[in-house]
Specification:
The chain is α/β, with parallel strands linked by helices and about 750 residues long. The chain contains 24 helices and 25 strands. The protein folds into four domains: about 200 residues, Rossmann fold, CATH 3.40.50.450; about 120 residues, Phosphofructokinase domain (Rossmann fold, 3-Layer(aba) Sandwich), CATH 3.40.50; about 200 residues, Rossmann fold; about 120 residues, Rossmann fold (3-Layer(aba) Sandwich). Helix 10 crosses helix 19. Catalyzes the phosphorylation of D-fructose 6-phosphate to fructose 1,6-bisphosphate by ATP, the first committing step of glycolysis.
Length: about 750
C-alpha cells in the first residue's frame, strides 16, 4: 500500500495538484481536523520498503451511517477536496461509491444547515473516486493481482520452505493454514508453488468421501519414498455441504487413519506483514500513477472506477461491476454452484486450479493413455530460478499425457554426448523450491554438434523437444529449425519456454527467473539505503546484470526508489550524468540525504561503473561521498520467488500440452513416425500483454537485435518516465498506453 500512496502523492504533485493524506481511513475522514493533512514530496520518502500503510487504516462504523458521511463530506469541502483515491478491499470501495452517489445530496444538506455556503456547494458539486485494490487474499474480481498478494505469497513460501527441511528430517506431515476466509487464491497458489500433496479451498470443495481420497494419496506418496507431506488449508475451506474443514480436523484425520506424526502450523498475520516484494512495489507504483491519471480525466458522467491489472496491462474497470462480480462469487458458493464460483474468480484462478489438479495426482499405469511418443526436456543458457519448477511441471504433464519423458543434462552439449535418460514422476518431487538448474545447463549452441545431436535423437527416438532457457535457447531453436533441410531428426515439434534473469528473450514480456533476480536487487538496495541514511550524504552506485538488456536496472530502480538508472536502450551522455549529479546535490539540501543509482552492466562501453563512480565522487566533493557495489551472480541464485515458481509451472505445463497436440497432428500412421517441418512447429511460448501465446521462432527474427541479444521493442521502456517522475525529474509521460475504461468480462455460466 505504501508504494501506491507514494506514487499517488508524487504523481499528484507532478501534475501540480494539492495532495492530502487522510489518516486512519474513513474514521479520519469523519473526524477531520488533524487527520486531513496536505503533504509534500518528502512526506512519502523512505516508505517504499515499509509494509502495512503509513497513513493508517481503520474499520469505521460511523461512515456506514448517513450522519457519518455528512461529517466526512463537510471535512472534505473545507479542504476543497473533490478527488478521492481509495486503497482497500471491496468493503472500502463500496463505501466510497455510496459516498459518491450521495455527495450532491450531502452538500445540499450541509448548505441548508449553514455548514457550507452556496458558493462552496456549487464549486465542489462533484466527487470523483478511483479505487485501487489492496487485499492479500486476491479476492477482488476484475484484477489478476491485488496489491499485497505477491508479498503474502512470499511470506507463505518462506515458511513452507523452512518447514520442508524439518519435515524431511523427521518424516512428518504438516498441515498449514493460510489466510483466505472467502477466497482460496493464497492456498491454491502456495500449493502450486511448493508442490503440496493436498489443498482445501472454499471455491472448489473436495467431493464426498475426500477423507479416503486424501489418506490414500498421502500413503501412496510415502510409499514412493517421499519423506514428507504438506497439506494446505485456506481458513475458509469448506466441504461440498458448506461445512467448514479446519486444519485441526485434517490433522486428526491423518493421525487416526494413518498414524503419521502430524503438526499444524497456522500462519495468521505473518502473511500481512514484512517487506513488500518487488512485484507489489512495481504494481502499486503503476496503479498509483494510473489512478491519478484516471482522476484527472474523470467527469461527473464517468462511473467510479478501479485501476486493475490484466496480464501485464493496467486497465480501468467500473468499480460497481467488479464489486457485483465479487459478491456473485460468494453467492455462488453459498448456493453450492462451485463451478460458477471458480469461473467468476477469473482466468488466472482457473488456470492455477487446473494446473494444480494435473500436477498433484499421479494416475495409475492403467489410467494413463500410452502414446509411444518420447519427449526430451533440456535447460540451455545461464541458470535462472524457477527452471526446476518448469522441468517438474513438464515431466509430470508429459507423463499424464501418456508420453515417455527424457531429461537431457548440460544443455545441447550434454545432448551431443548422449547424456539423456528417462525421468519419472517421482524423480522431480520437491523440485519447485530449488534454485539454479538441477539438470545442469550450458551456453553451448547446437550448431557445432548437429551431427551428434541428430544421432542421439535417432538413438533415443525423440519425437518432441522442450527447451527451457534464455537467449541461447532461442538461438538454438533457430539453428535446429534451419538444420531441418539436412536432418530429418529435427522435423519434430519443438517449443521454448523463456527462462533468464535478464528478461531479454523476444516474444515474451516476462522470463522465468527475472522476478527472483529483481527481488534480490530490491532487497540489496533496501539494505544499502539503510546504510546510506545512517551515514547521511552518501550516494551508492549499483551495477546489475542483464547483458545489454536494462530490465533489471530499470525495474530494480522503480522497486527500490532509485534516483537514476543507466541502461543501454536509452543512450546517455556526459550532460545527462552532469544533470543527475546536480539533481543529487539539490536532494542533499532536503531531509532525504542519500542517493541510489543503478547501472546495467553493459549500458555503455566507456561510461563504466568505475567511471560513473569517479565522476560522482569528484563532482560531489564537499556535498556527498560515493560508494559502489557490483551485485554479480547473487542475482542468478537463491530460492525462486512465488511468481517464478508459479509462472514456470503454468507456462511449462501449457507448452507440453501444445507439444501433445502437435504430436497428434504430425504423426504419419503409414510411416509410423512424427514428421513436422512447418514454421509453426517450432515455437516460443511467451507472455504478451494479457495472453500466453505460441509464436514461431522464425517470425520473431524480425523483432530481434541479434548483436546485443535483446528484443527491438520492450514494453517496460514505457515505465521509464514513471521512475523519473517518482524520482522528481521533469519528463513527459506518455499516456497513450493509459487504460481506457473497459467492462468486466463475465464468463458464461457453466452448464451443469
Amino acid at each position: 500500500m505504501n508504494a501506491a500512496v507514494r506514487a499517488v502523492v508524487r504523481m499528484g504533485i507532478y501534475v501540480e495538484a494539492k495532495v492530502y493524506f487522510i489518516y486512519e481511513g474513513y474514521e479520519g475522514m469523519v473526524d477531520g481536523g488533524e487527520n486531513i493533512v496536505e503533504v509534500t514530496w518528502e512526506s512519502v520518502s523512505s516508505i517504499l520498503q515499509v509494509g502495512g500503510t503509513v497513513i493508517g487504516s481503520a474499520r469505521c462504523k460511523a461512515f456506514r451511517t448517513r450522519e457519518g458521511r455528512l461529517k466526512a463530506a463537510c471535512n472534505l469541502v473545507k479542504c476543497g477536496i473533490t478527488n478521492l483515491c481509495v486503497i482497500g478491499g471491496d468493503g472500502s470501495l463500496t463505501g466510497a461509491n455510496i459516498f459518491r452517489t450521495e455527495w450532491s445530496g450531502l452538500l445540499e444538506e450541509l448548505a441548508s444547515q449553514g455548514e457550507i455556503d452556496e458558493e462552496a456547494r456549487k464549486k465542489y458539486a462533484y466527487l470523483n473516486i478511483v479505487g485501487m485494490v489492496g487485499s492479500i487474499d486476491n479476492d477482488f474480481c476484475g484484477t489478476d493481482m491485488t496489491i499485497g498478494t505477491d508479498s503474502a505469497l512470499h511470506r507463505i513460501i518462506e515458511v513452507v520452505d523452512a518447514i520442508m527441511t524439518t519435515a524431511q528430517s523427521h518424516q512428518r506431515t504438516f498441515v498449514l493454514e493460510v489466510m483466505g476466509r472467502h477466497c482460496g487464491y493464497l492456498a491454491l497458489v502456495s500449493a502450486l508453488a511448493c508442490g503440496a500433496d493436498y489443498v482445501f479451498i472454499p471455491e472448489y470443495p473436495p467431493e464426498e468421501g475426500w477423507e479416503d481420497h486424501m489418506c490414500s494419496r498421502l500413503s501412496e506418496n510415502r510409499a514412493r519414498k517421499k519423506r514428507l507431506n504438506i497439506i494446505i488449508v485456506a481458513e475458509g475451506a469448506i466441504d461440498s455441504n458448506n461445512q467448514p474443514i479446519t486444519s485441526e480436523q485434517v490433522k486428526d484425520l491423518v493421525v487416526q487413519r494413518l498414524g503419521y506424526d502430524t503438526r499444524v502450523t497456522i500462519l495468521g498475520h505473518v502473511q500481512r506483514g514484512g517487506t513488500p516484494s518487488a512485484f507489489d512495489r512495481i504494481l502499486a507504483s503503476r496503479m498509483g500513477v494510473e489512478a491519478v491519471l484516471a482522476l484527472l480525466e474523470a467527469t461527473p458522467e464517468t462511473p467510479a472506477c478501479v485501476v486493475s491489472l490484466s496480464g501485464n496491462q493496467a486497465v480501468r474497470l467500473p468499480l460497481m461491476e467488479c464489486v457485483q462480480m465479487t459478491q456473485d462469487v460468494q453467492k455462488a458458493m453459498d448456493e453450492k454452484n462451485f463451478s460458477d464460483a471458480v469461473q467468476l474468480r477469473g482466468r488466472s484462478f482457473q488456470n492455477n486450479l487446473n494446473t494444480y489438479k494435473l500436477l498433484s495426482t499421479k494416475k495409475t499405469a492403467s489410467e494413463l493413455p500410452t502414446t509411444n511418443f518420447n519427449v526430451a526436456v533440456l535447460n540451455v543458457g545461464a541458470p535462472a530460478a524457477g527452471m526446476n519448477a518448469a522441468v517438474r511441471a513438464a515431466v509430470r504433464i508429459g507423463i499424464t499425457e501418456g508420453h515417455k519423458m527424457f531429461a537431457v543434462t548440460d544443455g545441447f552439449e550434454g545432448f551431443s554426448k548422449g547424456q539423456i535418460k528417462e525421468i519419472s514422476w517421482g524423480d522431480v518431487g520437491g523440485w519447485t523450491g530449488q534454485g539454479g538448474s538441477i539438470l545442469g545447463t550450458k551456453r553451448t549452441l547446437p550448431a557445432k554438434h548437429m551431427e551428434k545431436i541428430a544421432e542421439q535423437m535417432r538413438n533415443h527416438t525423440i519425437n518432441a523437444l522442450l527447451v527451457i532457457g534464455g537467449f541461447e535457447a532461442y538461438l538454438g531453436l533457430l539453428e535446429l529449425s534451419a538444420a531441418r533441410e539436412k536432418y530429418d531428426e529435427f522435423c519434430i515439434p519443438m517449443v521454448m519456454v523463456p527462462a533468464t534473469v535478464s528478461n531479454n528473450v523476444p516474444g515474451s514480456d516476462f522470463s522465468i527467473g527475472a522476478d527472483t533476480a529483481l527481488n534480490t536487487i530490491t532487497d540489496t538496495c533496501d539494505r544499502i539505503k539503510l546504510s546510506a541514511s545512517g551515514t547521511k550524504r552518501r550516494v551508492f552506485i549499483i551495477e546489475t546484470m542483464g547483458g545489454y538488456c536494462g530490465y533489471l536496472a530499470n525495474m530494480g530502480a522503480l522497486a527500490a526508489g532509485a534516483d537514476a538508472a543507466y541502461i543501454f536502450e536509452e543512450k546517455f551522455d556526459i550532460r545527462e550524468l552532469q544533470a543527475n549529479v546536480e539533481h543529487l546535490t539539490e536532494k542533499m539540501k532536503t531531509s532525504i540525504q542519500r542517493g541510489l543509482v543503478l547501472r546495467n552492466e553493459n549500458s555503455s562501453e566507456n561510461y563504466t561503473t568505475d567511471f560513473i563512480y569517479q565522476l560522482y565522487s569528484e563532482e560531489g566533493k564537499g556535498v556527498f561521498d560515493c560508494r559502489k557495489n557490483v551485485l554479480g551472480h547473487m542475482q542468478q541464485g537463491g530460492a525462486p520467488s512465488p511468481f517464478d515458481r508459479n509462472f514456470g509451472t503454468k507456462i511449462s505445463a501449457k507448452a507440453v500440452l501444445w507439444l501433445s497436440k502437435k504430436l497428434k497432428e504430425s504423426y504419419r500412421r503409414g510411416e509410423g513416425r512424427v514428421f513436422a517441418n512447418t514454421d509453426d512447429s517450432v515455437c516460443l511460448l511467451g507472455m504478451r500483454r494479457r495472453n500466453l501465446i505460441f509464436q514461431p521462432v522464425i517470425e520473431l527474427k524480425g523483432d530481434t537485435d541479434f548483436e546485443h541479444r535483446i528484443p527491438k521493442e520492450q514494453w517496460w521502456l514505457k515505465l521509464r518516465p514513471l521512475m523519473k517522475i517518482l524520482a522528481k525529474y521533469k519528463t513527459s509521460y506518455d499516456i497513450s498506453d493509459a487504460g481506457q475504461l473497459e467492462h468486466v468480462h463475465r464468463p458464461k455460466p457453466v452448464e451443469a
